[in-house]
Amino acid sequence: MSTNPPNLRPDLAPRAKITSASRPGQPTIGMVSLGCPKALVDSERILTRLRAEGYAISPDYSGADAVVVNTCGFLDSAKAESLDAIGEALNENGRVIVTGCLGAEPDYIREHHPKILAVTGPHQYEQVLDAVHTAVPPSPDPFVDLLPASGVSLTPRHYSYLKISEGCNHKCKFCIIPDMRGRLQSRPAHAVMREAEKLVENGVKELLVISQDTSAYGVDIKHAEDRGHRAHITDLARDLGSLGAWVRLHYVYPYPHVRQMIPLMADGLVLPYLDIPFQHAHPDVLKRMARPAAASKTLDEIAAWRDICPDITLRSTFIVGYPGETEEEFQTLLDWMDEAQLDRVGCFQYENVEGARSNALPNHVDADVKQDRWNRFMEKAQAISEAKLEAKVGQRMDVIIDEIDDEAATCRTKSDAPEIDGNLFIDEDFQNLTVGDIVTVEVEEAGEYDLWGRVV
């Protein structure tokens, strides 16, 4: 059992969980998945295809005939982490195929690691498969591998990420995701629903809806309706809510139509949880970021959401130390936090990333000032979190069980997404519980980020 401090990288996916099972002589591929949940879904799709072609999946470099490293290129620190992972895979295995966001820069990767077998960009599944076929020819067993099978999941079987679109149409100056993953490409709504139905049939209790811009879903395909499902986020949320699983919405841009989804939360169809990356609160900083500069209107929207659904949990991420950020602008952000009273908050210190337009902005903030502002921001966020959690003591709520060990059952409330938010721990009379169960608890104790409770 471990309590949950704030994540220094709130964009990261949970660590991939790979189980190893192979038959004698079966070709085996290892997988290292870095970065965000969207990349984790890419890894799942690659591994699902490989498994259907007769490959075994290995969590260990040494037990694999080749290794696929799915990289992240969001920040320069993430690029460095990806390069380190590629180097480790080369040292441990020697036969490495690189894919993912950093794969959009093949020359940069080969400059550091010339011995890699192949490089492909993000969500280029066919090219990854071709590279694997070249490195390690498939050897399917027609009596086993050609049977229909559920997809490979890199998360615990009771929750799953559901990616509804690729790419992004925004042009935020600090972000190069559109350059790496392209413009918005929404999946047909009926395809999303078919995948969701299969996941729920296979035991998934919680669907985590992800994309680069979830609230823009369907804009590129003019909200097309096909086979009874319309490609609009409000319609999709309603349809997903009919499946009986928890539905959690991530990466929701605060468009006005987001308000239309809040009644679905009040009615219990969708979890009362919104993950909205506000990034900052001062209009001049937002303008330099090339984001909507309407922080006051955002406070009005938050108030409207809470009027419709008082139990709503609001999560967001912010950037401190953005080029040109003054002490006055940072203080505006702290004051805004006092008013907004967000439930779950993550924070980045600004970093240059090669190719981002923000690199050319004047008046970059010194590293020690960025660190000081991050500390002050997180102190504010922690105090808000602690007060909000203390107010939950004595309440009864449903929780989903993620893990059980000798000390406790580690659970999450409807207000908590995996890994990035807090936990609720049941440390008495938990021996008969099962991972994936949803049980009712009474909250008995609160900390800075976590709760403790008992089953009722």
From TrEMBL:
Q: Where is the Radical SAM core domain?
A: 154-387
What is the E.C. number? 2.8.4.4
Q: Where in the cell is it found?
A: Cytoplasm
Binding of [4Fe-4S] cluster 2, residues: 168, 172, 175
Q: Which organism is it from?
A: Sulfitobacter donghicola DSW-25 = KCTC 12864 = JCM 14565
Domain named MTTase N-terminal is located at 27-137
Concerning PROSITE patterns, the annotation shows: MTTASE_N, RADICAL_SAM, TRAM
Q: Which UniProt keywords apply?
A: 4Fe-4S, Cytoplasm, Iron, Iron-sulfur, Metal-binding, Ribonucleoprotein, Ribosomal protein, S-adenosyl-L-methionine, Transferase
Its Gene Ontology cellular component terms are: cytosol; ribosome
User: Does the keyword field hold Cytoplasm?
Assistant: yes
Q: What does this protein do?
A: Catalyzes the methylthiolation of an aspartic acid residue of ribosomal protein uS12.
* Similarity field: Belongs to the methylthiotransferase family. RimO subfamily.
User: Per its record, how is this protein called by name?
Assistant: Ribosomal protein uS12 methylthiotransferase RimO
For this chain's record, the cofactor binding note is:
Binds 2 [4Fe-4S] clusters. One cluster is coordinated with 3 cysteines and an exchangeable S-adenosyl-L-methionine.
One Pfam family this sequence matches: Radical_SAM
Matches recorded under InterPro entries: Elp3/MiaA/NifB-like_rSAM (IPR006638), Methylthiotransferase (IPR005839), Methylthiotransferase_N (IPR013848), Methylthiotransferase_N_sf (IPR038135), NA-bd_OB-fold (IPR012340), Ribosomal_uS12_MeSTrfase_RimO (IPR005840), rSAM (IPR007197), rSAM_horseshoe (IPR023404)
Q: Name one GO biological process term.
A: tRNA modification
Q: Which HAMAP family does its entry note?
A: MTTase_RimO
GO MF annotation terms: 4 iron, 4 sulfur cluster binding; aspartic acid methylthiotransferase activity; metal ion binding; protein methylthiotransferase activity
- Cofactors required: [4Fe-4S] cluster
